[in-house]
């Protein structure tokens, strides 16, 4: 019996040793090539993730970047975040290099945790997906199309401010901005007007947004595991919406120019093939995620800086055009001023 316990203990320690060796070896390989930029990869697996998150929690996320620019290089340095090796480009010249060489010297890439959240995106490369999206979106970003959205944005803004901003002595801007931008995205992308229907997506999207930028540890209860479950739930709901829209299009209750969803369903590629429902669901999901945090963060900072810089606020308020394209922005400023 004692020998059995010793054997099991030896087996356990052997397993732990092999696991640690694999983690260290896997972590070391990406940065073992010569001519790499200066920097450090931190601890195995987690890299410098904890320090990166710590600066964010303290309200100074830029400190992580600035500290390394001072220590290693003002233009480029290496690090490791969320289990992935990373090279950070800093400054105007480096950013120009990146954006001028897209799909030439550099190409879009997603880490494994994103591919697990969007499994159908693995069917084609990131480069091909980027090209597809660029062909789909310009139709909805032309000046004529944007003019059609102004009345929709204005109407939703009126309802939003009347419900959550007016007659309030104090508001927390960021969650309200997220609520507004997400409602607007659902309306413009899929023509969903019922706030209760939109609210059904709210919590899963919060879990999804948090889980995508977490450590890719797929165990029950982890943010990453919750993100995968949330993506499955959202995808099922989107598939229901897509199938209803297909029926509406066939019966003439919806049009191709109604929103991006209709356009995706009725647009074929060079070979005459239409996108399948799962690809469309993933693309709509990606668009909703892209507009969920970025736009709301921008709106929040606009309100923050206008509140802190009243002379800028007054100048902006006076200079805003009365043209139809900027009516919704002026409404935001006017409601805030009240």
UniProtKB/TrEMBL annotation:
<dbReference type="GO" id="GO:0020037">
    <property type="term" value="F:heme binding"/>
</dbReference>
<feature type="transmembrane region" description="Helical">
    <location>
        <begin position="6"/>
        <end position="25"/>
    </location>
</feature>
<dbReference type="GO" id="GO:0016125">
    <property type="term" value="P:sterol metabolic process"/>
</dbReference>
<keyword id="KW-0479">Metal-binding</keyword>
<keyword id="KW-0503">Monooxygenase</keyword>
<dbReference type="GO" id="GO:0016020">
    <property type="term" value="C:membrane"/>
</dbReference>
<dbReference type="InterPro" id="IPR036396">
    <property type="entry name" value="Cyt_P450_sf"/>
</dbReference>
<dbReference type="Pfam" id="PF00067">
    <property type="entry name" value="p450"/>
</dbReference>
<protein>
    <submittedName>
        <fullName>Putative cytochrome P450</fullName>
    </submittedName>
</protein>
<dbReference type="GO" id="GO:0016705">
    <property type="term" value="F:oxidoreductase activity, acting on paired donors, with incorporation or reduction of molecular oxygen"/>
</dbReference>
<dbReference type="GO" id="GO:0004497">
    <property type="term" value="F:monooxygenase activity"/>
</dbReference>
<keyword id="KW-1133">Transmembrane helix</keyword>
<keyword id="KW-0812">Transmembrane</keyword>
<dbReference type="InterPro" id="IPR001128">
    <property type="entry name" value="Cyt_P450"/>
</dbReference>
<comment type="similarity">
    <text>Belongs to the cytochrome P450 family.</text>
</comment>
<dbReference type="GO" id="GO:0005506">
    <property type="term" value="F:iron ion binding"/>
</dbReference>
<keyword id="KW-0349">Heme</keyword>
<keyword id="KW-0472">Membrane</keyword>
<keyword id="KW-0560">Oxidoreductase</keyword>
<keyword id="KW-0408">Iron</keyword>
